[in-house]
Automatic annotation (TrEMBL):
It is a multi-pass membrane protein. One of its GO terms (cellular component) is plasma membrane. InterPro entries: AAA+_ATPase, ABC1_TM_dom, ABC1_TM_sf, ABC_transporter-like_ATP-bd, P-loop_NTPase, Type_1_exporter. This is ABC transporter ATP-binding protein. The lineage of its organism: Bacteria, Bacillati, Actinomycetota, Actinomycetes, Glycomycetales.
């Protein structure tokens, strides 16, 4: 319990820090203006009391003075309210921007991919996405709470001046806050229960409204079915969350009952004092007004308490995401990454299993990837090729065995340092809709989007023709969704991605994980033939090139071919050696080549 309270407090504190960093002056102004309003409202009520009592006693001078002071106080209150509202939106605008950037950093910076691929992590990430709006309002909720607390305390002190028993009414607000926090916890629990279902609903929405599935939806006429499933998933989520909200509402209704009882009791006691002659007419106006104001601010305090509680939970999730990123960031004192490879990369009895998988993706793999060689990975889908690429990239750590780079355990390197020496292109490439220069240049930010470096990378990728075909060359805005954008074919996007993966001039490891699936076999063959020649020409760097492809005509040029089968190494050797062995590789090669005859 204590650990949860500490985590919640840290989460709330960190959420506040995001708002403060976004606009420090605005945050200070918002809090000061809120507190000023909280003091001015009871003062204005007190001036009303003074004015009424002065009129009753015939003290015209005091009545005029109180009326003038009241007018001034009301004017200041309105000025404070207008300034307060303007500051609220200013701080909110800046905080939302900074909060979004913070979430982008926390989601994008962790070296691992667990939070993108594991369902239990995805549920937490889903709650962060759903509740991120709370970060923008955290400062406002805090300012509102401080304002409410000050009104209740200041107003309670004024009530106590008339009779100490009237202090009971402000104390009732504490019971309301406790009930509200418990009601908020119930609602939050139901939100967490439905995280996976809500992810499914959002996925259906994204599929139905995105461009990737648009052609298939229309050909198969499945848009209606998708809509029906989205509706069913939505009904389930709404029904479950409604149950939580009703349960919370039933509990929260007691807060209303308690507050109403306290308010009625307070007003009744004030009237009792007036009848007994212990309170003037001004006192009655003051006390009834204070009780109403305290009741209103107490209700607001209850609502803001719930929102702050939710914000604290969100902050705790962000803290979890930050710690997750730090835990996977590598050793505190990393070993220096070598400038070149002398021996290569060795896998010693490497195993890896995804948390929810029934069998390991890699099972006791021992393999040598020699320096300066092109190594091809082949095998059926699910054989473990992409998993091996992920381990080499540092996205995951082996669950068994180790990967050695020139004799040094890969986990001993700093993740960022190791990745600086990797060039990679993946099948599920990113379509960065920037200018062509930026889309390619992000492959090596250290090059500063230099035109010459970008063109050299595209030349190394054998894809310089793509730039020549663009209407504005490297300045062309990519993506058909923009007014000045140019849409590209799947093959053109893949060539740009290959160029992006070739931006680093002296990598230790080059990875090609089926990056040419949208290209015809002849183009793919020509591209990888050029890669192989370049690797062999630059073997003094010791670069290891790993190629994953289903096209055996392409992999035949590799120096070493590794056949994977159900997470294990079935065969290794050159194309000639494997063909002479007449094993699985030879069978698959002949089966595929026969289709082209």
């Amino acid at each position: 319990m204590l650990d949860k309270i500490k985590a919640g407090w840290r989460g709330y504190r960190d959420s506040l820090a995001i708002g403060y960093r976004a606009h420090p002056k605005g945050v200070i102004a918002q809090i000061v203006l809120g507190l000023a309003e909280a003091l001015l409202i009871p003062i204005a009520l007190y001036l009303i009391k003074v004015m009424i009592d002065a009129v009753q006693t015939g003290d015209s001078q005091q009545a005029y003075l109180a009326a003038a002071s009241l007018g001034l106080a009301v004017g200041v209150i309105w000025a404070v309210v207008f300034a307060y509202v303007k500051v609220i939106f200013t701080v909110l605008h800046h905080t939302v921007r900074v909060a979004d950037r913070r979430i982008m950093e926390l989601m994008g910076n962790p070296p691992g991919l667990d939070h993108h691929e594991r369902s239990d992590y995805l549920d937490r990430v889903q709650r962060i996405r759903e509740d991120r709006w709370l970060l923008g309002g955290c400062i406002n909720q805090t300012a509102q709470m401080l304002r409410a607390v000050l009104v209740i305390v200041f107003g309670g002190a004024m009530l106590a001046q008339v009779h100490p028993l009237l202090l009971v009414f402000p104390l009732i607000t504490l019971a309301g806050m406790t009930i509200a926090r418990r009601a908020g916890a119930i609602e939050e629990d139901y939100l967490e229960r439905t995280s996976a279902a809500e992810r499914r609903r959002r996925h259906l929405f994204e599929v139905a409204t995105g461009t990737d599935a648009g052609k298939e939806l229309r050909i198969f006429g499945s848009a209606g079915e998708l809509g029906a499933r989205h509706s069913a998933a939505g009904r389930g989520v709404v029904a479950e969350r409604n149950r939580g909200q009703w349960k919370a509402a039933r509990l929260a209704s007691w807060e209303g009952v308690i507050s109403a009882f306290g308010m009625a009791s307070g007003i009744g006691f004030v009237l009792y004092l007036a009848i007994r002659g212990q309170a003037t007419a001004g006192d009655v106006i003051l006390l009834v007004g204070l009780i109403q104001i305290i009741a209103g601010y107490a209700a607001g305090l209850t609502m803001h308490t719930v929102l702050v509680y939710k914000t604290a939970k969100l902050g705790a999730r962000l803290e979890w995401l930050r710690k997750y990123g730090e835990a996977s960031a590598g050793p505190a004192r990393p070993v220096e990454t070598p400038e070149r490879l002398s021996n290569g990369i060795v896998l010693e009895d490497v195993s890896f299993a995804y948390p929810e998988s029934k069998r390991p993706s890699l099972d006791g793999v021992s393999l040598e990837l020699p320096a300066g060689k092109v190594v091809a990975l082949v095998g059926e889908n699910g054989a473990g090729k992409t998993t091996l690429v992920k381990l080499l990239s540092g996205f995951y750590q082996p669950t068994g065995g180790q990967i050695l780079v020139d004799g040094q355990d890969l986990t001993g390197f700093g993740v960022a340092s190791w990745r600086q020496r990797i060039g990679a292109t993946f099948q599920d490439l990113a379509r960065f809709e920037f200018t062509a220069r930026e889309t390619i240049g992000v492959g090596d930010l250290g090059a500063g989007f230099d035109d010459e470096r970008v063109r050299e990378a595209m030349a190394r990728a054998g894809a310089g023709d793509v730039i020549e075909d663009l209407p504005g060359g490297l300045d062309t805005r990519l993506g058909g969704r923009w007014d000045d954008g140019t849409d590209l074919s799947g093959g053109q996007w893949q060539k740009l991605a290959i160029g992006r993966g070739r931006m680093r001039e002296e990598p230790l490891l080059v990875l090609f994980d089926e990056p040419t699936a949208a290209l015809d076999p002849q183009t793919e063959h020509a591209l990888f033939e050029q890669f192989a020649e370049e690797v062999r020409a630059g073997r003094q760097r010791g670069t290891v090139t790993v190629l994953v492809s289903h096209r055996f005509s392409t992999v035949s040029m590799a120096d070493l071919i590794v056949v994977l089968d159900q997470g294990r190494v079935a065969e290794t050797g050159t194309h000639k050696e494997l063909m002479e062995r007449r094993g699985a590789y030879a069978e698959l090669y002949e089966l595929q080549s026969s289709a082209y005859r």
